[in-house]
Design a protein that fits this description.
The protein has 118 residues and is an all-beta fold. Helices cover 0% and strands 52% of the residues. It has strands spanning 2-6, 9-12, 17-24, 32-38, 45-50, 57-59, 67-72, 77-82, 91-98, 107-108, 112-117.
Length: 118
């Protein structure tokens, strides 16, 4: 399984960005998907995840109500829509996948940098 994240960039506080994670090697219907982020000097943290067979989602409290994870089965792609961005959202964002709900996140994309200016 290969994951290719894209869509990062520089945005002003209050703005929006949409990240994409293109999947190859498996179909979306086979995978649980998640987004993580790592800010400079900090550990990687969970952002949100999407169940593979439903629209069930879970988000970190820090992004709840501002970020939304969605998917396009036809494009085999998962998205992270980020609204009302804050400077503290600045980080490298990674998409991750697993085929079993209780397994570790075994597949990772390369990361895409999001910088939010104040």
């Amino acid at each position: 399984v290969q994951l290719q994240a894209s869509g990062g960039g520089l945005v002003q506080a209050g703005g929006s960005l949409r990240l994409s994670c293109a999947i190859s090697g498996r179909t979306l219907r086979e995978l649980y998907m998640a987004w993580f982020r790592q800010a400079p000097g900090k550990e990687r943290e969970f952002v949100g995840r999407l169940h593979k067979n439903s629209d069930n989602t879970l988000y970190a409290d820090s992004v709840k109500g501002r970020f939304t994870i969605s998917r396009d089965y036809a494009k085999n792609t998962v998205y992270l829509q980020m609204n009302t961005l804050k400077p503290e959202d600045t980080a490298v964002y990674f998409c991750a996948a697993r085929s079993i709900m209780t397994a570790p996140w075994g597949y990772w994309g390369q990361g895409t940098l999001v910088t939010v200016s104040s």
